[in-house]
Amino acid sequence: MAARSPRLRQAAAPYALLLPSALFLLALLGWPVISAIGQAFTGAHGGTENWRQMVAEPQFWTSVRNTSLLVVVLIPLQFSLAVAMALLLRERLRARGFYFYVWTVPLAVSDLAAGLVWLSIFTGNGYLNSALGWFGVHPVDWLSYQNTSTMFLAVLVAELWRATSLVMIILVAGMQMIPRDYDEAAQVFGASFWQRLRHVTLPLMRPSIQVALILRTILAFQAFAAAQALTGTQFPLLIGQTYLWFVGLNDPHVASAVALVVLGVSMVTAIGYLFMLRQPRGAGGGAR
Amino acid sequence: MAEIRLRNLVKVYPGQQNPATDNVSLDVADGEFLVLLGPSGCGKTTLLRMVAGLELPTEGQVVIGNRDVTYLPPRDRRLSMVFQSYAVFPHKRVRDNIGFGLAMRHVPGDQIRAKVAWAADLLRLTDYLDRYPSQLSGGQRQRVAVARAIVVDADVLLMDEPLSNLDALLRLSFRAELKKLVGELGTTTLYVTHDQTEAMTLGDRVAVMRGGHLQQVGPPKELYNDPVNLFVAGFIGSPAMNFVSARIEDGKLRLPFGDVPIEGRLKERLAESNGSHRDVIAGVRPEHFEDARFAPEIERPLKFRVNVDVVEEMGSELYAFFSVKAGQVHARDLEELEEDAGAAALGHGSGETVAVARLSSESDARAGTQTELVLDTDKITVFAPDGRNLMRAES
Amino acid sequence: MTADAPPRPPAVAAGPLPPVNRRPLRRRRLVRAARQAAAILVTLFMGVPVYLITLSAFSTRAELNRFPKALWPRGVSAGTMRAFLGSTGVVPSFVNSIEVGLTTLLVSLLIGAPAGYAIARYAFRGHDAYQVFLLVTRSLPVVVLSIPLATMFLRLGIYDSVVAVALVHAALALPTTVLITASVFISVPAELEEAALIFGGTRFAAFRKVVLPLSIPGVAASSIFTFVLSWNEVLAAAILTLNNRTLPAQVLTSLPYSPIEYRFAGGFAMVVPSLLFILIMRRYLTNMWGATIR
Predict the structure, then answer these.
(1) What pLDDT digit, counting tens, does each position of B299-355 carry?
(2) Which residue of chain C has the CA closest to B391?
(3) C65 in reach of chain A (CB within 8 A)
(4) C4:B32 CB<8 A
(5) Residue C249 near chain A (CB below 8 Å)
(6) How far is it, in rounded angstroms, from Cα B304 to Cα B308?
(7) Is the dihedral of CA C111, C114, C118, C119 positive or negative?
(8) Rounded distance between C-alpha atoms, residue A233 and residue A145, angstroms
(9) How many CB pairs (< 8 A) connect A and B?
(10) Global confidence as pTM
(11) Does ipTM come in above 0.85?
């Protein structure tokens, strides 16, 4: 022991500090992923049977359609709204602190709670129909299984309400790191508001947009509880299917197969974003 | 091309008591290079930003080329600007940075290419057009910022301390280049700096600001030779002007170095206060002292011996620091300058004031020795205790 | 102007000044009003649902069944909330949620803070690789993990326990904990710590006496964040428990057969902590997210 030089101890120190966290993550995240892959390809009926069952389940393709529709419509809407919110916060509006507080509250609201909150609005005798009633509009059965489009709308609004804050806060953090000079230079050199947004603000926010897009899309593929709270199982989503297979039908093998579909799609999307938003060599880095 | 007319500009930032600029009126002629000079916080940048439209005045008017632009957004003012931080877009290639202003105004592509090539050639950036700013040095980035500013067809060119982020050597060479470039372009230019050397070398005229007020506007030489007050006198010139307390008594100016009869230029300019005896502050620039052995022909010299404390050899000349038995000069102007400069140049001591003389390099003045100096008394400037220059030709 | 002849005549622009054009000001005021209106609109979208769930949770059952409903308090009563809190499993699930949250916080700090310190203070091979590893783990869907873990926990005999849920939550929170604590430690100047070392302390003593006190606020912020993550997590909690539900898991699993007022009360009970959380944290929010994107 005495022979160990201080230099070696120094070199080993960071690894010793990292080791617990690495082991912990491998045990609780790494191993389960491998195990899930294993489970998806084994079981009483053998590997391919799980996948056949998954696909044969009548709700599966509906849930695929619903999930992708949700992601495709939600993400652009959410980003437009979040960019607008971040830009509004950049202007020194009166009551800016209050706005910021209200706009970030959903950040800490779970998707289940968000679903229940919007349930009070969209439910048959809820607040939306009450408000419409004042204008003489007949109540609409927003959450009925016959109205797929209004169900989708309700889930979309709930997700928009709950998760836009997250995108906004990442964009605001990114925006704060951009020196104001760039925007002022663009103003002086004749750029209009839209030109500034397109040529200066958004490109400079590329790193934070990238993070927000990846994070947010992966989470959107995992949307589940809000739809569950609003529609029960009337509007199936992929994660709801895994939950159903595992809890309802008690089949971890097929459940794992569905989960792997989500994982695969998330990974492909994340890589797609990284590829789409990659920076040209040498760009960025700023004035450092 | 256009002249700039600023009228009674007041800017009060929300939540602040003192205005950043207070009733400033200033004219910049067509094609003129005017430098706004002053210590930090004097309002010079605020004034520039009001011309740019990045800040709106609380009161007053901004006119560019006979067009009122007071409340116009920056993009409608036909300006271009060089920023202190360069503000060169990191995500655009040099080419697109330079052409930015043209592209935003939907100038056809071939015209943009031609103008970019012209500016790049002028600023020696041709080899770097396809690089990103992160692949350039600080000096090159500054060139890109200047190129971007000159390609647009602007009425007015604004520069906000464009050289302050460059290292000393680069600053010097780029200063000369900038002067030549702007001179050839002939664009009306408003240039902000806190560096008096920069102001003196670049400006056709210099406007000195302090605490939101204009102090004096004039050609560099006039500011140097005929400053309106202690502040301007002390701010301009390096090493700074020496200030000693003095008295006017019996037709003489009693300096700590000796008595000077009020004759010649002193008499001409000081006419109104002749005879009455009163306390004043005398200002002497370091170069108006000389080693008595190397003094040129001077009409009205004052010779005196001093104990030299410190000598700084500059090669072409030397600075001799000596103590003068005279009370410290107290004036608000000087206190402000000291705050800005960190006191060094102006000298302080109990009952003694440190003065600097700029002597010929052949002088053998050495620290700890006595040397005879001669002072050109026609060059003395006399200030009232409130800082006013008593010798200024009234306009 | 002066006695010395200037090299160039000072600017004397000919002619009277043009009148001040105030039209741009009007436009500017309009734009500002539009911005303010947009901000108010967004605020209504974000704020009104919170108001409505509160209203629902404190309305009488008769009021909840009425149509059309009033958008202002009418028939206020704590009965709905009382009924919710009195239903089977709700109070224990509250307790479980708090226990899981605190355990999660403790585990993730104990494991994550040293890693954050290593990232902040040492330059070592694998520094960047470790950060990429963290980002990858953060992107794994919770279900993928939960199902195999359920099997594993069953085997280990800790299925349906506070510890099981807390372990998963800690793993989910760990990447963020590491990144946030790293940014906290970076903001404590290394020089201070080195000074403590020079004056004859051990590295650990220097950490305890210098770094720890200075980093407490930031670490507290990250702890609250971890707690909220755990408080809100539904899916893993629902899969890994049967009788010892956390609050969200309890509400989720009883959704299919619960009356509507139970759902509103449950929604409100879950929203209240987030209102408090954001109120406490709003000043740290952007910094924390700024830290995680770098």
Answers:
(1) 888 999 999 999 999 888 999 999 887 766 777 777 777 776 654 444 444 567 889
(2) C3
(3) yes
(4) no
(5) no
(6) 12
(7) positive
(8) 9
(9) 91
(10) 0.85
(11) yes
